[in-house]
Design goal:
By secondary structure, the protein is α/β, with parallel strands linked by helices. The protein is built from nine helices and five strands, in the order ααααβββαβαβααα. α2 (22-54) crosses α4 (79-89) and α3 (61-69) packs across α4 (79-89).
Amino acid sequence: MIRNNAHKYSVSAMYDVLNIPKSTYYYHANLYGKRVLKTDDKEISKETARIFKESRNNYGTRKIKKELSKLSKPRYVSRRRIGRLMKELGLVSNYTVAQYKPHKSTYNEALINNELQRQFEQEEPLAVIVSDLTYVRDPTKWHYVCLFVDLFNREIIGRSAGANKSAELVYQALSSIKGNLNDVQLFHTDRGKEFDNKLISEALETFGIQRSLSMKGCPYDNAVAEAMFKVFKTEFANGAHFSSLEQLALELDDYVHWFNNIRIHGTLGYLTPVEFKQDPIIFVQFSVDIPRFC
């Protein structure tokens, strides 16, 4: 009775009128709450496990909370509760593993300016693209992956995998871009020699694309690409086993499709890159204080 009328009358007044001890009321209220919570936990645990599995073990509490709210029967759950359920289920995100980034000992001294100047928010597709390279281990040797990212919607628009860290690998990734390269205004990278060489320069000149290089020894100038590769290593490369370069290339294609079409991004208002490109207006309400590339 007290619980059903708590919205109309003072709880303390009601248990005084009914001559019910305060401790008795809160004991039963707490017991009832635990029973409801236990029943809800079963359903929420099931959905949490499903969402986590479909995210390829990558989503944390923030994104799982967002996905739960998008169900046909929305579940609005706190991140703390989701974290508790994940712990009970033994669900550990790939992002809980610390990553090591090797330090680059040599830099390209080319006299090319940083034209981007950390303007990572772009309003047109393909206006500015960024890139970087990373390594992937197979049982016997290293392979390398090059990715191109569109700053407009953080979509992976170009990729390549090869046995060597070279200009040819970058050129293959550039060639894989399906959009019109004449629309690209600026190409920004760090000062790796794979990006600043005759082969890449000629390709950029062909399409009238301006070059931009990060300041020497400053990864923050290419922060989106750096963040992209942290995501890539965590979600794809770390812990994976590739029997051959061919298998790496196939699984890379599958990951890129998932990343662009299924994986939600906090920096895009929890849309996928493809969804954002179709209707970027939706993003306006989420554009304040959202962590970059999460």
